[in-house]
From TrEMBL:
Domain ABC transporter as annotated: residue spans: 5-235
Keywords tagged on the record: ATP-binding, Nucleotide-binding, Transport
PROSITE patterns named in the record: ABC_TRANSPORTER_2 (PS50893)
Transmembrane portions of the chain: none
Pfam families per the UniProt record, alphabetical: ABC_tran
Origin: domain of life: Bacteria
Lineage: Bacteria, Bacillati, Bacillota, Tissierellia, Tissierellales
Native source organism of the sequence: Finegoldia magna
Name of this protein: ABC transporter domain-containing protein
Coiled-coil residue spans: none
Keyword Zinc: no
GO molecular function, one term: ATP binding
Length: 294
């Protein structure tokens, strides 16, 4: 499957301070990837560099296999972003949307407005006619998110999209994001300090530490733990995805569950309990920090 975004040997500095050094990763269609790091690690700088808001020192950024960004208007119509999004304070939400349609060269205006109206309703701004200058911070954040999700995008880059949203708004936005990423084969790069939300949303994580991406192939894999009655059963299991440990059988591939159940049934071994565990983003973040400090 062809990559939506590919970053190779990216380097960025401000004056004499190196911010990003030899950053490498890629995003595929239908993939939701969390960008994680401590404050000041360079997450927003990385996002702005990908979007072309700031210039890279060196390296390669390829979007839809195009490194040159030869047709910037066409490319911008396929990239949605919430990264320091500028809102026009003296205009209404609908007027801001109209400007975004023109700026990003979104051609199918009726379809775009259908989505815009759906999004405005989702984030609680449908029918709000007052100027953005009269909005609360949360309302401005919700409008910025609406602008990011307009059009036929192939790449979404979201920096702190849940700020200012109540629990219902967060759940609605997560549901919508999951649906459009799957349905429209979008690649999403998202950064947030709300670990619980990105833990539930993301397929995998990129850790930005010491100016580099680390553990970029680390996925949130589920582990099925089957607790059995026998502490040391006489079982022969020739499968790397099935591990026997005391009175527990650890299954790392859900496709091997039926095989495991059959083995236990054939040996007349009782199943006492089944648990499902997966690494949380907090656990993964702690592991990276411990490795950094060791």
């Amino acid at each position: 499957m062809e990559n939506i975004l590919e970053i190779n040997n990216l380097r960025k500095s401000y004056k004499d301070v190196l911010i990003l050094d030899d950053v490498n990763f890629s995003l595929k269609p239908k993939e939701i990837v969390g960008l994680v790091g401590t404050n000041g690690a360079g997450k927003t700088t990385l996002m702005k560099t990908i979007l072309g808001f700031i210039f890279k020192d060196s390296g390669e950024i390829k979007f839809l296999n195009d490194q040159s960004y030869s047709n910037k208007h066409e490319l911008m119509s396929k990239i949605g972003f919430l990264v320091d999004t500028r809102l026009y304070e003296n205009l209404t939400a609908e007027e801001n949307i109209q400007i975004q349609i023109l700026y990003r060269n979104l051609k199918n205006e009726k379809e775009t407005w259908d989505r815009a109206n759906y999004l405005l309703e989702l984030v609680g701004l449908k029918g709000v006619k007052k100027k953005v200058s009269d909005y609360s911070f949360g309302m401005k954040q919700r409008l910025s998110l609406t602008l990011a999700l307009l059009g036929d995008v192939k790449l979404l880059i979201l920096d702190e999209p849940f700020v200012g949203l109540d629990p219902n708004g967060i759940n609605g936005v997560k549901k919508f994001i999951k649906e459009i990423v799957e349905k429209e084969e979008i690649a999403l790069l998202i950064s947030s300090h709300q670990m619980k939300e990105i833990d539930e949303l993301c397929d995998r994580f990129l850790f930005l530490e010491n100016k580099k991406i680390r553990n970029h192939n680390l996925n949130k894999e589920k582990m099925f733990i089957i607790e059995i009655s026998n502490k040391t059963p006489n079982l022969e299991i020739n499968d790397k995805n099935i591990v026997l440990k005391d009175n527990k059988i650890l299954v790392s591939d859900k496709n091997q569950l039926n095989k495991t159940f059959k083995i236990l049934a054939d040996k007349n071994i009782e199943i006492k309990d089944i648990l499902i565990e997966s690494d949380s983003i907090n656990k993964l973040f702690d592991e990276v920090q411990n490795e950094k400090n060791s």
